[in-house]
């Protein structure tokens, strides 16, 4: 299966999982000059930026592909979003989560990978 299609399926599964946990979708595939944020969801007064990784868990878990370089790009994109998108102003706190979607259907949610407050 094509990598892009596989990523879209993983994002959809992650979104369904998060919705069942009470999250609401704010943006999907938010793009800016710094990169992309897969999902931006909210729950209560918290805005949650979600990086989704999907694939096989043979040698490394999908979430382990979120390396330091990827985190730096995500943080730049988050900061850009917080400054430029008016919707961000109605939230009191923010966090970055990583959702790992395995090919066999297992979903792992790592909450509050980086925590910051405004």
Q: What is the 3D form?
A: globular
Helix and strand element order: HEEEHEE
Quaternary structure type: single chain
Low-confidence spans: pLDDT under 50, at least 5 residues? none
Largest sheet: 5 strands, mixed
How is this structure best described in words?
There is one protein chain. By secondary structure, the protein is an alpha+beta fold. The protein has a single domain, classed as Trna Endonuclease, Chain: A, domain 1, CATH 3.40.1350. The chain is built from 2 helices and 5 strands; from the N terminus they run αβββαββ. Strands 1-2-3-4-5 form a 5-stranded mixed β-sheet. The mean pLDDT is 87.
List descriptors.
alpha+beta; Trna Endonuclease, Chain: A, domain 1; 30% helix; globular
Short synopsis of the structure:
The protein is α+β, with helices and mostly antiparallel strands and 118 residues long.
How are the elements arranged and paired?
Blueprint: H1 3-20, E1 24-32, E2 35-43, E3 46-55, H2 68-84, E4 93-102, E5 107-117
Parallel strand pairs: 3-4
Antiparallel strand pairs: 1-2, 2-3, 4-5
